[in-house]
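Hey, I'm writing a tutorial for new members on how sequence and structure tokens pair up, and I'd like a real worked example in the thread rather than a made-up one. If someone can provide the structure for the chain below, I'll link this post from the tutorial.
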Amino acid sequence: MVKDYVPLLILAVVAAGFALTNIGITLVVGPWRPTREKMDPYESGMTEIQPPRQRFPIKFYVIAMLFLLFDIEAISFFPWAVLLRPLHFSGFIEMFIFVVALLIGYLYIWKKGALDWE
């Protein structure tokens, strides 16, 4: 049984070796000459004219994280839908519990006001 995992181990060693070799070559060969222009922040093709005066609202990040969370959980429905027949009623009950947990989480963030846009 261990011999079945030998190709996977070889692949992992080769990938790690390749990554470490590239990092090592870059550190040894690549020049490091930091200047003021190179260290300035640069975003969206525009240099910073003045520092930002107001803070960016945290609501944007909360909405983005909630979208990712619920999007990744929605992806789990596809394998379940494919395997529904072999799973029989027990698979249906397990997914029902999963959906109830999602619904509780959704209602919680709704009651907390995380989905308010104002």
